[in-house]
Design brief:
This is Substrate-binding domain-containing protein. The chain is α/β, with parallel strands linked by helices. Helix content is 39%, strand content 17%. It has two domains: 6-154 and 292-326, 3-Layer(aba) Sandwich (Rossmann fold), CATH 3.40.50; 156-290, Rossmann fold (3-Layer(aba) Sandwich), CATH 3.40.50. The protein has helices at residues 6-13, 19-22, 63-77, 93-105, 122-130, 156-171, 189-202, 220-233, 245-258, 272-280, 295-308, 336-339; strands spanning 51-56, 82-86, 110-113, 135-138, 150-153, 177-183, 208-215, 239-242, 264-269, 285-290, 323-325, 330-332. The relative contact order is 0.18.
Length: 345
């Protein structure tokens, strides 16, 4: 994820600390230097024009996706002027399209959509926009910018880039260093982007060679099975990057069962269990690279601002931006306490 600096860095770069740190307030001209936690009230919680927000996401069958739903619900509760219409969530694209069409027919003021498949749901995004309902496209992007008013999400390429640089700096003085990668679902574009970013970072370290890559399925079970295969195939390596902290739970089980502690591990996403392991510092997991689910809370902020015809506090523009890319911070023992409140289960 691209790194922002100065005031813009304060506004966007610390998003993972809490949605309030991403958007200091969609209508407020005041800012705060204090990072916000998920429990803090929204910066601009003074009631305004009532807004009904329709929220449609995929089935919460994964820790990160469940955190997405929780962030959206909890953020909406902080606003007295927001009514949240939330769908049950589905990984079936036809069913999710039907759920969104129901929200369109209800004439919600704004839609927040995390599509199970961005390409497959582009048409229903276009349908909402043509009906005069602005769409906040969350994370998995629609194929056409005409299908959304604003996109907010993570930077998968930057996630891999930052993981690679972290590992690179740890191994830069080691001759003939070897690294392996436990990726996610290879049929997802985000997985390919994470690998591309990781490989790009490693090119800066000629002493490091990636010797193996295995794709898992973002589940504990797949993480354990695929990590076992990697450990059997690679008797010696110096670092592992695992794309996802949920599958990392299984990966760590496999590592413990194999009795291996001769390498460092970097995770991905920002699960509470990963933060706790990093803080304990008694195993191979030394860091994780964030893909903050607080983006859903910020999507509610943006939807409310759109519904009330307001902009983002801290920016000169009258309108909210067309896109917001969150920064994928590296969390290690030095800063884990700061991010601990944002860890998802």
């Amino acid at each position: 994820m691209p790194e922002f600096t100065s005031r813009r860095g304060l506004l966007f770069g610390t998003a993972a600390v809490g949605a309030g740190a991403l958007l200091t307030g969609c209508t407020s001209n005041e800012s705060s230097d204090e990072p916000a936690s998920n429990d803090q009230p929204a910066a601009d919680d003074k009631p305004g024009k009532p807004v009904t927000i329709g929220f449609a996401g995929p089935q919460a069958d994964h820790g990160w996706l469940n955190a997405i739903n929780d962030n959206a619900k909890n953020r909406a509760k902080k606003y007295k002027d927001v009514t949240l219409e939330i769908t049950e969530g589905s990984n079936d694209t036809a069913q999710q399209i039907g759920q969104i069409e129901t929200l369109i027919n209800k004439k919600v003021d704004v839609l927040v959509v995390l599509p199970a498949d961005g390409k497959a749901l582009t048409q229903v995004g276009l349908q909402a926009m043509r009906a005069g309902i602005p769409v906040v496209n969350l994370d998995r992007i629609f194929n056409s910018p005409q299908a959304y008013r604003c996109w907010i999400g993570g930077d998968n390429y930057g996630m891999g880039l930052n993981a690679g640089h972290y590992i690179g700096e740890k191994l830069k003085d080691k001759k003939n260093a070897r690294v392996i990668e436990l990726a996610g679902l290879d049929n997802l574009e985000l997985t390919k982007q994470r690998t591309q970013g990781f490989d790009a970072a490693l090119k800066n370290y000629p002493n490091i060679k990636k010797v193996a890559r295995q794709a898992a399925e973002f589940t504990v079970e797949s993480g354990q099975a695929k990590m076992s295969q990697l450990l059997q195939a690679q008797s010696k390596f110096d670092a592992l990057w695992n794309h996802d902290d949920d599958q990392g739970v299984g990966a760590l089980r496999a590592i413990d069962q194999a009795g291996r502690d001769d390498f460092l591990m970097v995770g991905g996403a920002g699960a509470l269990s990963a933060f706790q392991a990093i803080k304990a510092d008694d195993g191979v997991l030394k860091a994780t690279v964030l893909y903050p689910p607080t983006m859903a809370a910020s999507a509610i902020d943006l939807a409310r601002a759109l519904g009330q015809g307001k902009g983002v506090g801290g920016l000169a523009e009258f309108e909210i931006p067309a896109s917001l890319t969150l920064y994928s911070a590296v969390v290690d023992k030095e800063n884990v306490d700061q991010y601990m409140p944002t860890g998802f289960k």
